[in-house]
Amino acid sequence: MTTPTVAAGTIGASDLLALYEQMAVIRRTEKAAHDLFLAGLVKGTTHLAAGHEAVAVGASAALRPDDYVFATYRGHHHAIARGATPEECLAELMSKATGVCKAKGGSMHLTKASAGMLGSYAIVGAHLPLAAGAAWSAKLRGSDQVAVAFFGDGATNIGAFHEALNIAAIWSLPVLFICENNFYMEYTPIGSVTAVANPAADRAPAYGIPAEIIDGNDVVVVADAVSRAALRARSGGGPTLLEARTYRHFGHSRTDPATYRPPEEVQEWLARDPLDIARARLAEFGVPVERAIEADDRAAQVVAAAVAAARAAPSPDPAGAFTDVWADGGSQWRT
Amino acid sequence: MADVITYREAVAEGIARELRRDQAVVCLGEDIGKAGGVFKTTQGLFEEFGPGRIWDTPISEQAILGLAMGAAMTGMRPVAEIMFSDFFAVCWDYLANEMPKMRYMTGGQVTVPLVVRTANGGGLGFGAQHSQATENWALTIPGLKIAAPSNPADVIGLIASAIRSDDPVVFFEHKGLFASKGPTAPAGHVVPLGQAAVTRPGADITVVALAATVPMALAAAEHMALEGVSAEVIDLRCLVPLDMAAVLASVGRTSRLLIVEENPYQGGWGGTVASIVADEGFELLDAPIRRVAAACVPLPFADALEKQVIPTVDSVAGAIRALLAY
Questions:
Q1: How far is Cα A133 from Cα A142, in angstroms, rounded to an integer?
Q2: Average pLDDT, chain A
Q3: What is the pTM of this model?
Q4: Are residues B230 and B128 in the same domain?
């Protein structure tokens, strides 16, 4: 699925319908991942991004295909938004040979390098310096690419976050730091472990980086903010930090029921579902509701076909355990 | 160029040759630019290549290695310096979890062509947090290549291979060798990773060494020659790839093996070498395999104490004598 590239303030009805459909695909893929996990067909763990769709889809809409994206272990939405198919993502989760990483990465490491999706990282905060490095590389090569690091609120209290912001600022790197603030670092309210009210945005001024708090559940707002920040980065203006407020529809991982979240808070956020907000936006554009229903139907078909294909796919060749360590394709470490 | 060069000059010379050869090579680290490096191993690079190729960083080891990796993934060949190898501990995530695993866990989608250079080893009175030989830390991680040259020509030849490698390479420069001199390397000199050198042929015992323990082993071998012992010294040059074929061939000639390593005996790289020889070369041996390694204590400050802990020419000569008497 291709995402339209949009400039700030220019999203039209057809763009928005495409973004809506992409969010619907991600939502259904996450639901499928949840069900497959409960059915015992996904081993290990999953960190579902249902509820976060607008951040990934809105940001991708504002980026170019040659830009770089770095995501976290909660990264299915970013992989799909950048062009990985639901089938290759679900196949990866299900340990199938057709997985996007040949079943060597799993849920936490979805990567689609050919689409500029340069990885999902499972060590909190580690990828912020990597995104700064990709931005440095773009600067060194004289390209006008930008790099984006998506990270959770929990990452704002680890050292790598602070080292990355400082060096990105002093070297004026074309990098966007986009925090998906879902208000919980795993099981703990972020406010109870953070010295400032806004975990990412309030830290940015210490590094001289402009920051903005945005509605992470409104795909149009996200696309506009990312578009402005990307334009600034491409024109030599340096890094920007965006703190996108959003909310998980599932727990932190696996079967976590997230009972640590007050029911009224959950209800409040479910009433602000990013898909509902996008549908309301479509109505504002005068798009008939049937178009959104059709998009939903197409998304359902795509994901149902993806699940069927992933289920039917073969397991990886056991010999694959010993490939891809070195650039020569092998794993030999001694003579 | 002079025919003789110091080890520290060889570091800068080797990097400069690659910077001239390939525009994708770029250096970053603390004090490596105008200051020329705290050990003067990057002297002259800033003057020749300028701030667009030689980047001074803040004291942010995670940012240094993270930026190097992000740049390596997107078309550059970064050479990152971590000032002392002890500081690997503050950026270990990148060496242990990120650089060596990215290609594998993406099913081969991502390439990480970079070098992490670092000043390694003891004997200079820097105390417990600036003197460690940490090659064995890196050896525990599948996916890292490891080079540790013992002389100036090898510094130039191995840094060329390391920078041209499409795999992450950890490059250990020994602090105790920086002032040592040797023949320089001719233009285009490249030493392949994973190819050990027989630096002194001998018939009675094989002494396997790395970096600063190579001149130590050579000095011990010279001393033992006065006692009529013919010791063969093997310079491993790299721990990954590990040239066990060279070691096993030498043991086949001498039937005795001594391993001299500066890292602690506990978990040291010699344990891996010894286990392979015990497994695959058992019938070649006429004596037990012995290891001279650092004692399992933190490194003390005073010379009188430090020399009790790390290998010395005397301790190596003593071990050779004991194995010959077995």
A1: 14
A2: 96
A3: 0.97
A4: no
